[in-house]
């Protein structure tokens, strides 16, 4: 009978439970990692180099054995039911490992056959066209650019019609145009029912596409959160007030707001946290309305207001530093 802890949560296509990996050198790459990935979502796994991202993906894909813990993919245990679990997964590795002397058509078709799928030229044609590879179908891979080779890797991963697609640093070494094309393709795959898990160093990629975000550092998963909720809960907002006349110093009455004076006394900056509802934190008794009213009471006129919210990159850096 399966271990209750290894059962996937309702709606989960991947369930990772208490996963650890220690190499023969003694290096602990993963430490008691547990989380679920929902069917049909785009999940971004973020972390600095050496955090454990690739080790985690390699274990889920059956390429590396875990020291402890369980993983289920589409209801199948990756150890006890390896073939069924692996058949549900498409993997696009970070490295450009392709058969240089094979044609695009041959290598993608071969990848489909590796998983015991019957030949389906119409499907292979569809995949190649979706990746703008159709006009390269008879080209040898050795003649392709790096960006085109990246597309071939994605085509190979999709050839056997997986339910789950892992993209390990999919935009590494590709130009902005190709990166945008890949974002479009990822959205289309999600709309067709494929679950996408990506690791990336391009945080704007995660911010653009992900439904949920996991942050891993030093082998530990320190956070899994809805992207929008994460950005509201941990984001900072800055209100910059552009003054009509410069101030020599901040009046004592404004001290509780922790304002900063800049640009020769012409700009006041107020930094405040946002909570999940999008409002200011409950513990912050000084609202923007209070600030503006006090400026008026002090006879300080302003001509404009600007607000700016922290990006996912700001949040990511703060989370990793907090865990160090």
UniProtKB/TrEMBL annotation:
CDD domains per UniProt: ABC_DR_subfamily_A (cd03230)
Q: Which residues form the ABC transporter domain?
A: 14-243
Q: Name one GO molecular function term.
A: ATP hydrolysis activity
Q: Which Pfam families match?
A: ABC_tran
- UniProt keyword annotations, A-Z: ATP-binding, Nucleotide-binding, Transport
Question: Signal peptide location in the record?
Answer: none
Q: Which SUPFAM superfamilies match?
A: P-loop containing nucleoside triphosphate hydrolases
Give the similarity note.
Belongs to the ABC transporter superfamily.
Protein name per its UniProtKB record: ABC transporter ATP-binding protein
